[in-house]
Design a protein that fits this description.
globular, disordered N terminus, 12 strands, alpha+beta, 200 residues, 4 helices, Sulfite Oxidase, Chain A, domain 2
Length: 200
Amino acid sequence: MKDRSHFLPSRWLCRAAVTAVTAAMLAVLAGCAGTAPSAIATTTAVAPMGAVVSANEGGSPRFTVSGAVAKRATFDIAALQALPATTQTVGANSYTGVSLWTLLNDGAVGLKPDTGVRNPLLSMYVVLVGSDGYRAVVSLAEIAPESGNRTALVAYSLNGAPLGRNGMARLVMAGDVKPGRSVARLAAIEVFAAQPSSGR
């Protein structure tokens, strides 16, 4: 009869291989679901409407708000979720996030219009910047409740799930004929006031 102790190392290696393959398969499945594998156990959080938000794939896990505001601020996913949530349907998709108007008027930011100008909000605009440098402009007149009253959404959830490759947050402009202003992987929001030309 053969000595069975010689077979123990190979059995152990076989079990180790199965364990490694199982771990790799779970990592692949997690990636297909739009969640970074390393974030599954460490960075998940419960969002409104039952969405699970985790570390974003690419882009920054936060963005800054600066320019013509009372306070420069930084928002991460927790800070966004602490603000009133809004849901916007665009085609077959449902986005959840914070309206840009609400975010800019939050106590952490606060718009700072030029009070020496008549109707100063009508000449102010916002530049939203993605981590790849992509930029889009939204005028405050478009989104102010007393004028255009359009919803510009800083979304953090798509159909109840994290945005995945679109970053932690993205701009969603419902009603645009083309989605060119949908800035993904939001990295910065900059507020400006248009200045009169030097010839006047």
